Amino acid sequence: MDILIYGTVNSIIFALIAVGFSLVYGVSRIPNFAHGSIYVLAGFLTWSFINDLKMNYALAVLISLAIASIIGLIIYRFILIRLRGLPTSEIIASFAVSLIILEGLRMQGIAGFKGFIGPFYVLQPFIGGKMNIFGVFVDYQRLIIIAGGVVVITFIWLFTHYTKTGLSLRAIAQDERAAMMLGVNSDRMAMVSLSIGSALAGLAAVLILPLGNIAAEQGYRVLVYALAVCIIGGLGSWAGTILASFALGFSMITSTAVFGALWENVVLIGTIILILLFKPSGLMGKQKELEERV
Amino acid sequence: MTEKERRKKRFDRSVKVRCEGLYAISSWREMGFLAMPRILLILGLLILPITLDMYWQRVLCIAGIYALLALSFDFLAEYVGLVCLGGAMFIGFGGYTSGVLNAYFGWSPIVTIPIATLGGAVMSTLVLIPCLRLRGIYFAIVSFMLPLFSVYIITAVGIFGSTEGISALDTLPNIWVEQYVIIGAIIVALFGIRRLVNEDIGLIFRGIKDNDQAVRASGISITAYRIKAVFIASLIGSFAGAYLSHLYGWLGLSLFAMDFSILPIAACVMGGMGTLVGPVIGAIILTPMSEALRGFGQLRVVLYCLVLIGFILYKPEGLMNYLERKYHQFERWEVV
Amino acid sequence: MEKEPVLQVNGLSKAFGGVQAVLDVDFTLFKGEILGIIGPNGAGKTTLVNLVTGFVKPDAGSVLFKGKNIKGLQPHKIANLGLVRTFQVMRPYHSLAAFKNLIVPLNSPRVRRTSGGKLGDTDLVAIDILEQIGFERDARVPYKIASSLPLGYLKRLELARCIALRPEVILCDEVFSGLSMSEIASMIPLLEKLQMEGITIMMIEHRLRELFRLADRVVVINFGKKIAEGIPKEVMEREDVKAAYLGTGKRK
To answer: What is the ipTM of this complex?
Structure first.
């Protein structure tokens, strides 16, 4: 039973992390390697607002999300926009931005900036305490994560199916040229997708970080998880991302329960390799397999 | 009256035009023109160790390692079309192999380094094979993930010294051997790859980068050639890793550090992607800067990423491309 | 004329999402002939070539090359069996000289196999091939950078790429498109020469007049389906073929 509940929580965590990356890649084919760094940045910003500026929790969260989304926008507008169509440069540039943010957060001694080093940074859970579900004690934060995840996914689904901007995003994702001919501005859509994607990264951070502590190194791990989910689910496929999050979430919890926590990364990379060997377009990949192959 | 405009005109230097193809050996002047940069480079590299003091000689060794990594990144990215975000993986596999062979079996560096070069290359290639059949983005993603996974797995399974690493490995005899080994490796690798990309195999690699469908339609298996290219690049990287473990006499998780993945890329972009010699020079410039900034902690990583982005956005051709262009051409403003 | 079938396509179908690009197409290519594939734009002709040469996986149907099933094989394996294709959108290796473009096919397993390892210097072989198809050596055309060549030469370069593989069958995808009348007039003898050397050619074309000078038979495709097959003269008399190109003209 507890595997079921913790598995679900884990899966939703993966989904929250991956959905922002998947959105950006699906719409503008840009692999946003800075995704993990924005996650961590949002966490630290919230922490700073709460602890250094003594802001109200909710307000801090909202402002951090706004800042995260603006950063996403800036990354596109000033850096990636000049590199559209050059895949090598896009990858290198977003990777570099990621490092600037993550390593920058660990800097010490520059203009009095003390750097976020050490495991001391903790975000408080929204509601303390636990609840008993079917005999398993689950903290409220984890339930909030599940609720948050469902809300986010539903919201995105509604957004992309029923609002004008959302439909434009899907149009660009399906066929960029055709959408442009119908008046959809590809660059603007890319900016929208990047800001939404970054905001999602920030939201994931705010929901998930209270479970543990914040450390800059987590940025890489988060990016790896997002990439893993997207590869397994199929780059650019919605249903695939959700499916893969659940597949990965449950398999990792199960392997921890059966083999011990140390093997979960082996399971992760093992799954990635299996998928790449046997079904490269992912579980529900939009591209046909042969087109995925080179 | 029509407005006068200025525009830049570029001419090839007359001596360059005269040394196309076979005509290059028709006179000393032409040969000199072509040979001089290369001779300068080789002589410069060979003389460098003598002119430096103890501290900087050490730095030169490290710079050499980064230079090899930058060379392999440039080769993969510009001549095969694969962006490798995980140079640390080559260093790690090479370093761990040679270190483990030395620590557990007591073999001397003369034996372990070649074996580790080969072994590291084989391991790296094997791990990357699943994504070589697929589009380039997968290679970038998987190569990024692999160094991180190696760290997780080594920590989890607890082998090879886990988080503390293994120390007291044999080091190379003396500082002169250390330097000249790495400089020799750079020269061999640089001119070797230069030659390779103009041989038939190299042309196939470049064809795969330019237009992979046409290569497939010409009866060549892209996967097979990509495997060859990755193997070649990982030979270079694994050698650097094996050398590193015997330079400091120590191996540990830091062999998989992000540093080894990002600095070569920055060196490449700054030095001029595609020139093969640019990345080497870029590494030789960036490494001392990075060492000088070591006191500032992570600032140095931030700094080279900023340099990288600056170059990508504003001067994407990089230093060596620019210099090469200047060497062969001259520019003049003319009024139209 | 020998009537030995070298390529047999049966019931080939492919749908992309909701669009049925090719539906239930059968035809046979006989050894030594030149077969034309014609039809209005968007009829699925290039998709047909992609299906036959392995670039796209068919949903249904079979493709037999010299009696051997090649459906689902990878493109490079099919090319190595002797079935090669040109690309409609020309993209030579732009930074390389023209003759260097041929190095890639000359290194394929097929060429290695058929030349028995005695190919010699691939550069010289490449220049030789280019000369044979009309790149004047005196004007140093083979040495020019590929991206600087005009379209007529590029089309020939594409053909040379196929010839370098020592093929048995060449599928030409719109080799005449974009060329002037005189350029086409100089390509035609080249194709005839290839036919005389025993190579079977299948040509997808829009320039019907020029095609009919070469083709022995034609197959007409419309909306992914084969609607006619036979000698050019007879096929062009048919009402449905005319309607496919010109429309019916009837108002309802």
So the answer is: 0.86
